[in-house]
Amino acid sequence: MDETVRELAERLLSRGYEDLPEREQRVLRRIASRAAISRNVNESFHERLTMGQRIADRVAAFGGSWTFILLFACVILGWVGVNAWLLTVPPDPYPFVFLNLIPSMLAAVQAPVIMMSQNRQAAKDRLAAAHDYEVNLKAELEIMRLHEKLDALRQHELVEHFRTLEARIEAMADPRRQS
């Protein structure tokens, strides 16, 4: 198999196997062994997440949802309603200083969590792009191999056709066969 991979590198990529990047070597090894290269990148990425990363992703998903926005709006309206109209001695009277502090603290905690989640999503996207490159490269190289096989088959058919024609011409030129 080792010699096949080296020959594939020379024939399909016009470069030595050792001169290729690791992922292209991996693709050639998969072609030589006729193994699939496709895999679910999401599963392998999610398997490596820590508990903290999973929680951060859930917090970011919830913090960026309409459910959070509507729930937060209801809490603010409820806070204002209770402190402005229902309680005679409100713990947070108008202009609701404590209420203003709560969204600020929430934003201070939520922003880094969302950024961590976005950074992980970007890393996942880079991983998916690298995998897509490998799949596309393998498909392209397999197509090149198919073209080589078709060209060889056509060449073989042409050779056979010429042999048939040559035999006919010789039969027509041989006077012993004409009588």
UniProtKB/TrEMBL annotation:
<keyword id="KW-0472">Membrane</keyword>
<feature type="transmembrane region" description="Helical">
    <location>
        <begin position="59"/>
        <end position="82"/>
    </location>
</feature>
<feature type="transmembrane region" description="Helical">
    <location>
        <begin position="94"/>
        <end position="116"/>
    </location>
</feature>
<dbReference type="InterPro" id="IPR010406">
    <property type="entry name" value="DUF1003"/>
</dbReference>
<keyword id="KW-0812">Transmembrane</keyword>
<dbReference type="Pfam" id="PF06210">
    <property type="entry name" value="DUF1003"/>
</dbReference>
<keyword id="KW-1133">Transmembrane helix</keyword>
<protein>
    <submittedName>
        <fullName>DUF1003 domain-containing protein</fullName>
    </submittedName>
</protein>
